[in-house]
Amino acid sequence: MIEKFMQEFVEEARETGLPVEAVAAGDESKVIFEHHFAPDLPRNIYSHTKSFLSAAVGIAAAEGKLSLEDRLADFFPDRLPEHPSPRLLSIRLKDLLTMSSGFGEAYLMGNDRRNGTGFPDYMAYMLSREVKEEPGSRFCYSTADSILAGRMLEKAVGMRLSEYLYRRLFEPMDIGFPLWENDPQGHPIGGGGMFLKIADMMKLGQLFLAGGRFRGQRLVEESWVREAAAKQIETEPDSADIWRCGYGYQFWRSPYPDSYRADGAFGQITTVLPRAGLTVSVQCPETGDFERVKRALHEIVLSRI
Question: Coiled-coil stretches, from where to where (predicted)?
């Protein structure tokens, strides 16, 4: 049935000119459907990267190297301002993963980084920002939270995030070592900038669909899969966007039964549908109206599975 729905989506995309580069669907072990409207090349998956960071944190936690209750300030005491605020001192890894750090603004987003915001030291830049709200109290989407979480992981495991993910996920999942945006000091951006082909991007969804196993090999603990995918914090509702229905640990909740997604700018999406035993991915260009793609995916594929 999924092949039929996906083919209908492809035909709709052709007939109406939807801005889509590729679509794919799979179960936990194989690709069931894959279609390309553009050459099959690694592309920027933007904030879909955040969900790979989540997997890395889960692995490090299982190794006893990280805890959700770990505090940012304790990992970087020598980087703190002279008189740090109590709120800054209280930011936990959990707050960063749930986009509730308390900084209260969207920091270090793609355009900001392109414009040089935070150069040359993202850690120093963020630790100098005012923490306007109580950490953990309100969702505020900010790539800086993911960047800080990534830096905490690096400190905990003693290697760059890219190397850690390569050893723990990318190599055993046959993804290779992806091109990945780094900050001015050479730290991979925990919140974006990874380049992957759609089949490799979808492997994260397949891993989570299988409860943290990939082709039978345990890579992520099942308990972390459940926690990361669960609603950990409410997101502000948006009547115009049915996909805005809560956030986990660097995963968005989706409006389909028990479903969730990795979600990158302009339409780099992997939706995991556990009840159906399926995962569906799409990659889109930076130009065009992704809302049209979203509606077609919803109406033709995701709401029917």
Answer: none
